[in-house]
Amino acid sequence: MMSSMRISPAAVAVFLSLLAVAVGGCINSAGAWTITINGNPQYVIDRTVYDGFGYRLTINGTTGVPLEQFLYAEGLYPVTEVTIAGRSYDWNALANATTFELPLLVTADGRVFDGQGYLRAGNINVTVADRPAHTSLDIAPSMLYALGLGGDDTLIQGRSDRVVLFYVDAMGYERYEQAKSRGIINNITSLGAPEKLACMYPSVSIVNGKTLITGMPPDAGKGDYESHLPDGPTVLETAAQHGLIAYWIGGNTSPVDPGDFRISCPDRNENGYEADEVTTEAIRQYGSGADLLYVHYKDSDTIAHVYGPFSDEAMASLEYADIQIGRMLPCLDPGTIVIVYADHGGHKVPGGGNHGCLIPSDMIVPFIVHVI
């Protein structure tokens, strides 16, 4: 016969606390924590890694670093699903359901906050879609190469004295494909099939606009995603230093401040679009001898935020941008290199549209190169 043994409440509490640590597998006796990604010891989040990111986000009273920051740094994107402590999150569905950045934060003590509660896990499993071979980091050096100013031929193999880049804001690859299927961007599609690029994260205009003209990635350690100032020398500056005439032509607002190279064209005829005024000015500057033009169409992003990126209204804004590109193409001299580019895509949210996430519809963009 076995004798009964009485266990004190204090002993039970100690046992449960030790069990929690063992199950979580991520906190040691000194309070240090570690989270691996996909069970790979090379993909690790710990307090040192956490402190290396300057960006902090507060959601529902909890402050931390967005989980996506760590995933992007490790090259784990575009994201389709994330599993934490046995709980799976469809990344697209999560993005569509919220009006702010994805509510998954890693906190300073190693927990994950999902917008409602806290999860503790020693490993996070991440499922990703196919990632393009090239990113928007390759655009600036390719444009320099095309103009004979150094760089490399990653995206543009030919050279020309004149380059015109049409920047159709928020026309991610999924929006491009839908607009193409509707037959509403025939001027753009006539220029050839696009190459898929991965944009920079966060997938927002300020970040990607700066990368477009500098070829530099955002500084995650600095965590400043609100500044419109370029992070380094721009293609515009390099072109001017070599005697070329270069301009950034856009509407009343711009995702990047290129200084004296910028020409602003507000909606003077009040038709709801700036693209027509932008195009008129671009045609004028090209006719006056400009060698390099960035032609920015912002309307396609503004309207997508209001109605959603795949709404009829947002599709109409892409059609209008296409019409404007069609206005300018006949004005270009033979040999001019034409580029069509988008800074990011977008996804629907309650009451409209948004972008900024690591999902495919936000991160994958088209890049078209054509020689007149």
Question: What do these coordinates show?
Answer:
The protein has 372 residues and is an alpha/beta fold. The chain has 13 helices and 20 strands. The chain has helices at 9-24, 47-51, 67-73, 91-97, 139-146, 173-182, 186-189, 205-214, 235-241, 275-287, 299-307, 312-328, 360-363; strands at 34-37, 40-46, 57-59, 62-66, 79-84, 87-90, 105-106, 112-113, 118-119, 123-128, 134-135, 163-168, 195-198, 246-250, 262-264, 292-297, 337-341, 347-349, 352-354, 364-371. A hairpin with a 5-residue loop joins strand 7 and strand 8. Helix 10 (275-287) runs parallel beside helix 12 and helix 11 packs antiparallel against helix 12 (312-328). It is globular and about 65 Å long.
Number of domains: 2
Q: Write the CATH architecture name of the largest domain.
A: 3-Layer(aba) Sandwich
What is the makeup of the main sheet? 8 strands, mixed
Give the overall silhouette. globular
Question: Spans of 5+ residues with little confidence (pLDDT < 50)?
Answer: 1-25
Termini Cα gap: 95 Å
| Helix/sheet category | alpha/beta
CATH topology of the largest domain: Alkaline Phosphatase, subunit A
SS field, number of helical segments: 13
Question: Oligomeric status of the shown chains?
Answer: single chain
What is the level 1 CATH name of the largest domain? Alpha Beta
Any idea what the radius of gyration is?
24 Å
Helix content: 25-40%
Strand order of the largest sheet: 11-13-20-17-12-16-14-15
